[in-house]
Amino acid sequence: MAPISTMTQYTTNLTPNIVGDFPKDIGKITKVANGVIYFDGLQQVADPYGPNVSSANGLNGSFSNKAILDSQGRLLLVNPQPGTIGNLGLKSIDGPRSVSLDANLIKRLRITEKKEFEFRVDAINVLNHPNF
Predict the structure, then answer these.
(1) Non-local CB neighbours of 61 within 8 Å, separated by 6+ positions
(2) Is 116 among the domain residues?
(3) In this structure, is residue 106 part of a structural domain?
(4) Which residues constitute the domain of residue 33?
(5) Does 28 fall in a domain?
(6) What is the 3-state secondary structure (H, E, C) of the chain?
(7) 120: pLDDT confidence band, cut at 50, 70 and 90?
(8) What phi and psi, each to the nearest 5 degrees, are found at residue 18?
(9) What's the pTM value of the predicted model, to 2 decimals?
(10) What is the dihedral of CA 14, 20, 26, 31, to 10 degrees?
């Protein structure tokens, strides 16, 4: 058993377990009437290990972990068991691409030998298109 100080560092970077065929580049943007869908065809369901959660201190009543199913209803991602770390690496899923064009314009005027005036204009997202 690991010391408590070692276990606490893992609580902020928990990753799920991959239990199905989960492609790395699954993310794409699909626009719908009320927003955007990033992972089309995937669905979120209650974690199948939920019934195994202890009833001590009311833990089973506040358990809200979710699992991810593919479009055929097969499990892809589940939460790791208590005290374990998931096998999906951090930052290992490529989401939708983002393209942005930023620009700036700078004009410097020397007033005296030691003083200078700088006029600067920055434009972020010049093309004005949404990046989800």
Answers:
(1) 55
(2) no
(3) no
(4) 4-96
(5) yes
(6) CCCHHHHHCCCCCCCCEECCCCCCCCCCCEEECCEEECCCCCEEEECCCHHHCCCHHHHHHCCCCEEEECCCCCEEEECCCCCCCCCCCCCCCCCCCCCCCCEEEEEEEECCCCCEEEEEEEECCCCCCCCC
(7) very high
(8) -85, 120
(9) 0.53
(10) -90
Question: Which residue from 82, 101, 92, 94 is spatially nearest to 11, judged by alpha carbons?
Answer: 82
Give first-to-last CA distance, the chain, whole Å. 42
Q: For the chain, what is the mean pLDDT?
A: 76
Tell whether the model's pLDDT for residue 96 goes beyond 80.
Answer: no
- pLDDT value at position 54? 65
Q: How many domains does the chain have?
A: 1
CA angle 79, 81, 86 (to 5 degrees): 55
The answer to whether 77 touches 26, Cβ cutoff 8 Å, is no
Across the strands, what pairs with 117? 109
Contact in structure between 39 and 97 (CB atoms under 8 Å): no
Q: Residue type at 36?
A: V
Residue 118 falls within a domain, yes or no?
Answer: no
Percent of the chain with pLDDT over 70: 70
Q: Find tokens 């009437």 and name the residue.
A: 33
The predicted model gives 63-88 an average pLDDT of: 80
